[in-house]
Amino acid sequence: MPDQTTHKSELNRLAALTEKAELGGGSKAIEKRHNQGKLTARERLALLFDPHTFVEMNQLAESQAIDFGMQKKKVPGDGVIIGYGSIDKRLVFAYAQDATVLGGSVGTVHGRKICRIMDEALKVKAPIVGLFDSGGGRIHEGFFASKGVAGMFYRNTAASGIIPQISAMMGPCAGVSVYSPALTDFIVMVEGTSQMAITGPGVIKSVTGEDVTLEELGGAKVHSEITGQAHIVAKTDEDCIQSIRDLLAYLPSNNEEFPPVVQSRDDPFRTDSSLEEIVPADFRKAYDMRKVITRVVDQGSFHELLPRYAKNIIIGFARMDGQTVGIVANQPIFLAGCLDVNSSDKAARFIRLCDAFNIPLINFVDVPGYFPGVKQEYAGIIRHGAKMLYAYAEATVPKITLALRKEYGGAVMAMCCVGMGVDQMLAWPIAKLVVLDTTTAVNLIFRKEIQAAEDPDEFRDRMIKAYDHKYSNPFHAASNMLVDSIIEPSQTRPALIKALDMLKTKKRAKPFRRHGNIPL
Questions:
Q1: I need a surface site. Which of 23, 50, 78, 359 has the fewest CB within 10 A?
Q2: What domains are there in the chain, each with its CATH number?
Q3: Residues 330-359: tens digit of each pLDDT
Q4: How much is the pTM?
């Protein structure tokens, strides 16, 4: 039987190991991070979770490597902190890489720890957050480290569509470290201090001769504006953590639950006559669709994603009478709201995410079609545009579409109309739901008659008016049950909330196949 002295000895040993684990790479390394304007991994986790709720797991796990001097570099925790706790009183799991320990590199034990916490999150179906700050795979451990890295990818895929996965890039991340975030639902980056790249500037310089900095190669600006991989850009570590907490507030814990409902202080029956002023009846005039969205949803609730990428379409979360909804909207001030390769990809992935997590979709439509041109055709607009068709047709959550002005051509289907499984199709009185805009249609239909007319311009104008009166209006669509209701713009908010309320008990269809084959 151990005596009291033994107890004290072992408790002292535990305290020493715990202290070493909590110091990570040491006080000097921590001070250096603070001087760079960065928080430590532990400080980040403390901000992420509700106070005093975080429970750390496997704190004393350490690298078992002995080659290349690794036996002298053992640190309890092995450069990553894993655990669970509460965020807004809901269970969430997390891991945070500690760049003060071997640069946050992913070694064998490091990878095993992350895989362990991912397994726990999936086991109890709770969201998982990854705070990345890593130089990549730990080359000191050779091929052994690859199992943990590959295991992360495998678990990211297994958890996809079952639990929300959020990645925060909080430092320079290169090589294999960037693939796991790419497999998650959301990526948040910090302006100026976080980068993502498969190959570093040095290798690129030696192979291609290109001279580029890591920031130019994979900074927040690049991934939020060019590649479309950074959903949110934060200015500081603190802003980044708050962005994650805000995002989680819109999401359910898993695919079997519904998103949290908050108490709304906004009148569900609030009308807004300013919408008629915001949206010009003259289709040649542009406007900012965000102004429509923010006036229709619960005040202050719109949370846009990827605002700098493919700006001709808007996606994001909002609340309607306290209920989370996904917003997909054309943006007339960019490319006239046309769909193209990037906007189709952006929207399709968001639609599928909402469907995975029981989030109803509301579509604000003002679209003249797909953006024309050789460049778009060569870029694969057919297969990229088909992604939106596939995503909407596949989605089983409530789908509500509102036509504000233009709904032309194949883009009508891409924005979810009757025939694509829309549950409620609404339209404003000025909306035009047609295959082509009136002028183009008349020029094609009456080409010979226009040429033969004594006054071609007068004849064309007369045919345009006749076509508009008969076809280019929502009344013709409503008479054919292609529009369920024509509503006054001021009534948009109450009409959408009533439709959402009616669709609350919509049942998801049971899967009848393993999965479909979405276009690339």
A1: 50
A2: 4-248 (3.90.226.10), 275-436+473-502 (3.90.226.10), 438-471 (no CATH)
A3: 999 999 999 999 999 999 999 999 999 999
A4: 0.92
